Amino acid sequence: MRAYKTVYNFTALLSLLPTENGGRKRPVYNHYRPSFSFSTANQFSGEIAFIDQEELRPGGTARIEVKLLPSRYVPLKLKGGDAFAIMEGDKVVGTGVIQEIRDEHRIPASIAN
Question: Does the domain spanning 4-108 belong to CATH 3.30.1120.10?
Fold first, then answer.
């Protein structure tokens, strides 16, 4: 049996927690690489790019594009409306909702390494 990794690219609405509620102290910029959690104990690496703005400050909300790095364990069948949290280590710094899945595909695990 061949092992596969799943890749997702999607747009989402992201809200960073305010600093006084445990969020970041500084803004984030394009190519920010937090971990993502989709109602599971697992965290997944990905990269954020902002749509129509350059940065997002704590307490703010923005439309983003997300590219999740290939993973064997990412939940299959993510869809619009699914919620997620962004993490820095074990600390939640923001929450989001998927708006649209742009790309979902599987690649052999040996290629993704």
Answer: no
